[in-house]
From TrEMBL:
Protein name (database record): SDR family NAD(P)-dependent oxidoreductase
Keywords: Oxidoreductase
Domain of life according to the entry: Bacteria
Organism: candidate division WOR-3 bacterium
PANTHER family on file: PHOSPHATIDYLINOSITOL-GLYCAN BIOSYNTHESIS CLASS F PROTEIN, PHOSPHATIDYLINOSITOL-GLYCAN BIOSYNTHESIS CLASS F PROTEIN-RELATED
Any GO MF annotation of the entry: oxidoreductase activity
Keyword Oxidoreductase in record: yes
Length: 203
């Protein structure tokens, strides 16, 4: 099978702590572990299709988290929606940079993209955003089509051919938080993600 572009864009925001059927905290499972598992399940097809591109959507809210809480990734203590969301977005970047390192010289590039405050369905389900945030989304969030333009550019433009291990806002590479560049934390997160998903990667 041929797969030249993979865009990971699953995401959710939950004000109350919830779990998946497997007993995993829902925010972390949906926002990070789904990226990790789907990407690695498709890895053979991606590598055999090179040149290929992997793009992980993330958020600027990652910068609020100074480190990954490896002692409480399941957020068993003091769950807060924005805290859990920020942690999952930091995980997206740690995963992006670690995967880019592991796929160096394979012809597969890996980058992260922050679409910004966009009017999607994120947080609009029961148990999601409260009334104030819903109002802000309706009045201030950008159009999804506009937010998608840089994503399409990242997926298809010759301008970013061979560019890997970057965090983009609009069409510009920008510096993400110091915590997101912690290579030791990225390796630990990878190993934990393998255990949590039950999928040992070959990357």
């Amino acid at each position: 099978d041929t797969l030249h572009v993979l865009v990971n864009d699953a995401g959710g925001f939950f004000t109350r702590r919830e779990e998946t059927a497997d007993g995993l905290e829902l925010t972390f499972a949906l926002n990070h572990l789904s990226y990790f598992l789907v990407t690695n399940l498709l890895m053979d097809a991606i590598k055999s299709s090179a040149p290929a591109r992997i793009i992980n959507l993330t958020s600027g809210i990652h910068a609020r988290e100074r480190q990954m809480p490896f002692d409480d990734l399941q957020t068993m203590e003091f769950y807060k929606g924005f805290k859990a969301y920020g942690r999952s977005k930091l995980a997206n970047l740690l995963f992006t940079y670690e995967l880019a390192r592991r796929l160096e010289d394979t012809g597969v590039t890996v980058n992260a993209y922050n679409p910004g405050f966009t009017a999607t369905g994120l947080g609009m389900q029961p148990g999601g955003f409260g009334p104030l945030m819903r109002w802000m989304v309706s009045k201030m969030a950008k159009n999804p089509q506009k937010a998608a333009e840089p994503l399409i550019w990242l997926a298809s433009s010759d301008e970013v051919e061979g560019v890997s291990g970057n965090y983009f806002e609009h069409k510009e590479p920008v510096r993400s938080s110091a915590a997101s560049h912690d290579t030791s934390a990225a390796r630990i997160l990878w190993e934990i993600s393998e255990k949590m998903t039950g999928h040992k990667t070959g990357v």
